[in-house]
Design a protein that fits this description.
The chain is α+β, with helices and mostly antiparallel strands. The protein is built from 19 helices and 27 strands. The two termini are 51 Å apart.
């Protein structure tokens, strides 16, 4: 659908009720109808027709259902609605809205595949396969996969346009002036004589009308917001320390909770003695929960102290207790009976390798914790009539369902109040803390129970990024890469995560090869095989999921082959690349970094590329090998996203992804001993410090017609660009993360 296309009536979700005093507008481009969830939460003087724009006598509220995890999601969603509604961002209030199927994520489910069109159709075919398996069953209200912008791009602009035109129709009904003679600006309908009718004065009239669905989206030349630098809606609050997060919630009569679960994740609690804890100051209750025990007290500190005083006999881990066994399980999985997928098998790899000298390499990537800065928390209040839950989450409807199962309420009686999150990186795709809070609140009916996990408890119970291993074989001839055989093994992220959510999983887990099998390089004999390792420690989605490891494996091995061929790393990638948007990002990052200019002795430059989440992203790292170790000087990033909504927010997102990718590649890992995580706080799980952070230069390309998100794509190329630059400067190949196991950094 083009930007100027008219919207068919059947594309809209229209509620049947109209209540005097207000009206809400929205559009849902779904294949099945849903009820309007705003109708269930109306107050006197409000009305709702559709899910995204609520207008009352007091103001305009924009519903922004994709979770804000620090990435500016509320801001971007609001900007898309405001662009067509003709309001300024300081005129509106944003609300994440209730959990409801109306807010189904079309992009994540595959209705809008966020992958680029290609020259040869390869990526178009493979991207559909990726979304259909395993993502298709995730056609629910969920935030993830860098889909917030692709999902919202048409949907929310349409919602704003419908609201705008319906408010003009309300002005026509009120004044008799033809709608065609009106315009809108800054939250008001402007009459032919220049007089203004504020939207808030038209709410009652609009509530009595059928929404105007025959609308045309504005031409980009008329945009006021999209593509312009904006001040994010949360920037003042975050800059002044007044932003409210879930951890800031306070209620009268609140109980504070702390828990201990088996430090061997998934293991049982065999016995406990809480005698000492019961006698401690402020303790109200000791409550056994699934897999552990909790304490309710009059403040968090006392609850945390008391829960540590409980003597507990823990059962063994349901997975190998030591790391050697995890790595051995991966090494043993490169067998035919463990093949999970082989969707890339071009030419005749075995024949090509049989007649050539082989280049071989093996790569390792560790488990990694999510470790968001805000301590993970949830507040739950259980009464006979209803349950209220306050938490930050990416899976609101799953939270609603799981809490209902725990408390025995109907799901409709579980009311979720989504909070701003102080980070996630995939962590809030899990809801363990909410389930635990619900169990504790059930034991104290009528009182809000706020569960805050200590940093140590959170990192002990986190479902980390997958552990992974890759083996590459390849061949070169006449200065070119001619054969590449890459095998990747890891446990199934999808099976582990979806199993906890109670969803069935069938078919291959393409996260095992994401960011490797779908790369647009025309190597004549080219094969990528995914091997499903047995389940080990429970794992979950971590920022960029499979591509977070596979971007490192694939691009570093390609770089090794290019070096063996004696070719230029950037030029050979460009020669092999068959996808026009990807070629443009490689060309752009080459120009940005002045690739052809020589560097002095002791300095290095490395390039890496990865297509993930539909976004071609290329990065160049420049560094210096000093006497004290490697110092990263600059990183250049080019990414093709179709349309940059807010250049400032885009730059921040990309820079954050680069820092995230570099820091974890250099110094972070999660390891197990006796079935327990050995890293329990930031002293043993460090991040890149400010003095170590390079200058990051970002460019967003807008050459493709499809709009995509950029939260995750900058992560996969960061580690290989760094490793390739270190090789350029020192001649040392790094094939295992974290890199500081093998080389020093400043």
């Amino acid at each position: 659908m083009s930007r100027a296309a008219k919207i068919a009536r059947r594309s809209f979700l229209i509620g049947s009720a109209a209540v005097a005093g207000g009206v809400a507008f929205g559009v849902v481009l779904y294949r099945r109808p849903h009820d309007n969830p705003l109708l269930d939460r109306l107050e006197p003087g409000q009305a709702a027709l559709t899910p995204y724009v609520l207008v009352t006598a007091d103001g305009v509220t924009l519903i922004t259902p994709r979770a804000d995890l620090g990435q500016g999601a509320y801001h971007l969603q609001a900007a898309l609605i405001a662009e067509e509604l003709d309001v300024t961002l300081d005129q509106v209030t944003v609300d994440p809205g209730p959990p409801d199927p109306a807010y189904y994520n079309t992009a994540l489910a595959g209705d809008t595949v966020p992958f680029p069109a290609t020259d040869d159709g390869f990526l178009a075919r493979t991207s559909r396969a990726v979304m259909d398996a395993p993502m298709k069953f995730m056609g629910i209200q969920i935030t993830g996969g860098s889909t917030t912008v692709p999902d919202a791009w048409d949907k929310l602009r349409h919602a704003g346009a419908v609201a705008r035109e319906t408010l003009k129709a309300a002005a026509e009904a009120k004044t008799g002036t033809p709608r065609s003679a009106m315009r809108t600006k800054d939250g008001a309908v402007i009459m032919p004589d220049g007089s203004r009718l504020p939207y808030t004065d038209l709410a009652s009239e609009a509530a009595a009308l059928e929404p105007v669905t025959d609308v045309t989206l504005r031409d980009p030349s008329q945009w006021r917001l999209i593509g312009q630098d904006m001040q994010r809606l949360d920037i003042v609050a975050k800059s002044t320390g007044t932003q409210r997060y879930g951890i800031d919630l306070q209620f009268d009569d609140m109980l504070h909770a702390a828990v201990r679960s088996n430090p061997r994740p998934g293991g049982a609690m065999l016995a406990h003695d809480a005698t000492a804890a019961r006698a401690m100051r402020g303790v109200q209750q000791i409550v056994p929960i699934t897999g552990g025990i909790g304490v309710l007290a009059d403040n968090s500190w006392r609850a945390m102290q008391a829960v540590q005083a409980i003597e507990i006999d823990w059962g063994p881990a349901p997975f190998p207790p030591e790391m050697d066994a995890h790595w051995q399980a991966l090494a043993d999985s490169f067998t035919d009976d463990r093949i999970d997928s082989r969707n890339r098998d071009d030419g005749d790899v075995d024949a090509a390798l049989a007649v050539s000298d082989q280049v071989t390499a093996e790569y390792h990537a560790p488990y990694l914790a999510h470790a968001p800065l805000e301590p993970v928390n949830a507040t739950v209040r259980v009464t006979p009539e209803r349950v209220d839950v306050w938490t930050a989450t990416q899976i609101p409807r799953f939270v609603q369902t799981h809490v209902a199962e725990i408390t025995g309420h109907d799901r409709a009686d579980v009311h979720l109040h989504v909070q701003m999150a102080g980070g996630s990186f995939g962590h809030r795709l899990e809801d363990l803390v909410v389930r635990q809070a619900a169990e504790l609140a059930k034991a104290a009916p009528g009182r809000p129970v706020k569960l805050t996990l200590s940093r140590e408890e959170d990192m002990a119970q986190d479902y980390p990024r997958q552990i992974a291993m890759a083996r590459g074989r390849g061949a070169v001839a006449d200065g070119r890469v001619v054969a590449c055989d890459l095998g990747i093994t890891m446990p199934s992220v999808i099976a582990s995560q979806m199993g906890r959510l109670g969803l069935p999983v069938a078919g291959p887990d393409l996260q095992i090869v994401a960011g490797a099998w779908d790369q647009p390089f025309a190597i004549p004999d080219y094969r990528v095989t995914g091997y499903r390792a047995p389940a080990l420690a429970p794992i979950s989605s971590w920022r960029s999921v499979g591509a977070s490891t596979n971007g490192f494996f694939h691009d570093c091995f390609l770089d090794e082959l290019i070096h063996a061929a004696g070719a230029d790393p950037l030029e050979e990638r460009l020669r092999l690349c068959t996808h026009a948007p990807s070629r443009k990002v490689l060309e752009a990052v080459g120009r940005m970094s002045n690739w052809e200019s020589p560097l002095p002795q002791g300095r290095g430059r490395g390039v890496a590329y990865c297509l993930s989440f539909g976004v071609p992203c290329a990065e160049v790292v420049e560094l210096t090998a000093t006497q004290d170790g490697i110092r990263i000087d600059k990183v250049f990033v080019a990414a093709e996203v179709g349309r940059v909504i807010d250049p400032v927010n885009f730059e921040n997102q990309v820079q954050g992804g680069v820092i995230w990718g570099l820091g974890h590649a250099i110094m972070a890992e999660t390891t197990f001993s006796d079935g327990q995580t050995e890293q329990r706080n930031f002293d043993s799980f460090p991040f890149l410090r400010q003095y170590q952070s390079p200058k990051i230069i970002v460019r967003g390309l807008e050459n493709d017609s499809r709009v995509r998100g950029v939260g995750e794509p900058p992560v996969p190329p960061a580690a290989p660009a760094l490793a390739n630059a270190i090789f350029d400067a020192t001649g040392q190949r790094l094939r295992e993360m974290p890199f500081n196991r093998h080389i020093d950094f400043v």
